[in-house]
Amino acid sequence: MKADPMGVLVGAHFLDGDHACCEGALAAGCRMVFGYPITPSTEVVERIARRFPMVGGVFIQMEDEIASSIAIQGAAWGGKKVMTVTSGPGMSLMQEHIGFAAMTETPCVFVNVQRGGPSTGLPTLPGQADMMQARWGSHGDYEIIALSPNSPQECFDLTIVAFNMSERYRVPVMFMMDESVGHMTERVIIPESTEIDIEPRRLTRAQPSEDYELYAPEEDLVPQMPPVGAGYRFHVTGLTHDEKGYPVMNAWVQEKLVRRLVDKIRKNASEIAINQEFELEDAEVVIVAYGITSRVVQRTMFLAREKGLKVGVFRPVVVWPFPEDRIRELAGRAKAFVVPELNYGQVYYEVERLVAGRAPCRLVDHGGGALHDPADILKVVEEVLR
Amino acid sequence: MSQGEHRNPVESFLRMDRMPHIWCPGCGIGIVVNCFVRALLKSKIDVDSVSVVSGIGCTGRIAGYFKVDSFHTTHGRPIPFATGLKTARPDMNIVVLSGEGDLIAIGGNHFIHAARRNVDIKVICVNNFTYAMTGGQVGPTAPLHSIATTAPYGSHERPFNLPFLAESSGATYVARWTTYHVRQLTKAMVDVLNKPGFCFVEAIAPCPTIYQRRNRMGDGLEMMRFYREHSRIANGADTRSLDIEMGGEIVVGKFIDRDRPTYLEAMDEELSKRLGNRYVPYPTGVKR
Asked: Chain A: residue nearest B281 by CA?
């Protein structure tokens, strides 16, 4: 289906990433947001608070991030497209409910405008150190989807993708911005609603009955969702549950359920993947970078090419699930991999695992608070080629 | 047995395929379940418009036994979940049924803020003075000097007085009954199903296995006797006077019944005034 025109602010705008993310949510059909202020994400909910009353939406500023992250799930089961918005410390508080969303298969979007950490860290400065938390932060085994935009335009475009994926796969989707992208102001083009594809809720085709199975999966391992208050009389629990939704405490039901929760993402990984590749055809050195760092390395690549070095860039736009197959392919022909990120090694270790010794891998770490100097990354590129 | 011959009328509201339930003999939670079903029957409410939300704990298991759309959420968070559900579906009647540890200790912040906002949800709190599911730790309402596994020499913390907390936070309806007072408890549940705003019912319940045994208070039947002999009905009592002491009097009754605009009503009014024609009203069910 196409976007509801009421939420689409058609035109060319001059917006920062936070504001663009808000417009992306509106275009995606989000009409219910629960949030709690935290730098550098607050502008997203401020704009939502201003815009929602004009589009028939409701924003509630909750008492904390824990409340926000579960209130969205109540609203999701109530039929709404929902998101919450936060930064590192708030994300830490939300972790239990990311697991609840994974376990109950509740479509919802978590926006994390990353700042430097750990703890209170650098509230007003960028970081990319929440990438592993986004994947593993809640207890237990599960899979999520994480996207990493690198511009205000992408904050708009990919927020829509995040909502669509959360509906398609019934998972919490992590929208991993960072302070630089959130506060960077650029031209953002918002197209006509007729040009925006929207994934509708996967509503059940089954009729209410005593035998209704809340979690009977379809072929792609994703179950359909019932409307609340329509007589299905379903039960949702964070406990291990059978297909009826009832709690069952044994290893067999656990195996069946959790394997499906993991497989519905892993087995659909190629459909979920979004990557960008720059000059990889002849590249001897592959720079793997995501989010704001994927823009910094454009300069590194330019400087390297000027010097005659064969350098290309691989950018996962969807970071989780990680594009494993593509990295393995590249490992068969590249001489080296260089992974700069605003942390002390997170996505780097994924690359190293997949390259599996076939080529040297080098991390260019950075504690956050600023971006890499493209020349520093170039130095590492030159070292690995020596 | 022919169909429906000896059927208890509450059965059609319960997930009989999940029986037997997990609760111990003499536990008060079953009485609360019964009272709530009878309240549904009495109020003649469309059951499909009712949803039950629970947290974690013995009382948290209630959601799993009610045959309505039911949500067994995380520890302490049924109130914010219910806030989301109610906001998305203002036409539905959202009931939070959970224990005092869940709602008042770990979930205490959500409790006071939902009451302050006057979110239109009904909160029924089973208060058995202990964390029973985890084996009997001290709870936020445990009377002074009561024995618990984590207060082996007696609790020295001042307990919360729940009706006072609910009233001062903004609840529109506040009552307390024990599980001995089944008719009054049922009536209070009928009241709140029909009352807009954040409504709070405290149901004091026995926990013979975990709480009473340690505090030498006897079995479930003895607690019923205790409730009969030590309760005093005082409708409209000042909620400041409702502290509960070990072995002391339990004041019960309906204490507060007042009207305040609900969260969505207040939002609708403010936005209509401020935005005029630019306001696209959210369908809150508010009569305009």
From this structure: A56
CB–CB contact A63 B282 (8 Å): no
Q: Do residue A74 and residue B271 have CB atoms under 8 angstroms apart? A: no
The torsion defined by the Cα of B149, B155, B158 and B163, in degrees rounded to 10, comes to 50
Tell which of B69, B98, B270 to mutate to test the A interface (max A CBs under 10 Å): B69
Taking an 8 Å cut-off on Cβ atoms, the answer to whether A70 and B89 are in contact is no
Query: Across the interface, do B110 and A231 touch by the CB < 8 Å criterion?
Result: no
The shortest C-alpha distance from A301 to chain B (Å) reads 47
| Mean pLDDT of the A50-70 span | 98
Question: Two tokens at A149?
Answer: 């935009």
Confidence of residue B9 (pLDDT cuts 50, 70, 90): confident
3-state DSSP helix/strand/coil percent for chain B, to nearest 5?
40, 20, 40
> Kind and range of the H or E element at A275?
strand A275-278
pLDDT of residue B1: 45
pTM: 0.97
Each residue of B61-120: pLDDT tens digit?
A: 999 999 999 999 999 999 999 999 999 999 999 999 999 999 999 999 999 999 999 999
Please give the share of chain A, as a percent, with pLDDT higher than 70: 100
Between CA A379 and CA A385, with CA A383 as vertex, the angle to 5 degrees is 120
Q: Which domains does chain B have, with CATH numbers?
A: 11-276 (3.40.50.970)
What is the pLDDT at residue B6?
78
Task: Give the right CATH number for A276-384 from 3.40.50.920, 2.40.50.140, 3.30.750.24, 1.10.3430.10.
Answer: 3.40.50.920
Domain residue ranges in chain A: 11-195, 276-384
d(CA B159, CA A80) in angstroms, rounded, equals 39
Q: Which CATH superfamily is domain A11-195 in?
A: Thiamin diphosphate (ThDP)-binding fold, Pyr/PP domains (3.40.50.970)
In the predicted model, what is the mean pLDDT of residues A361-379? 98
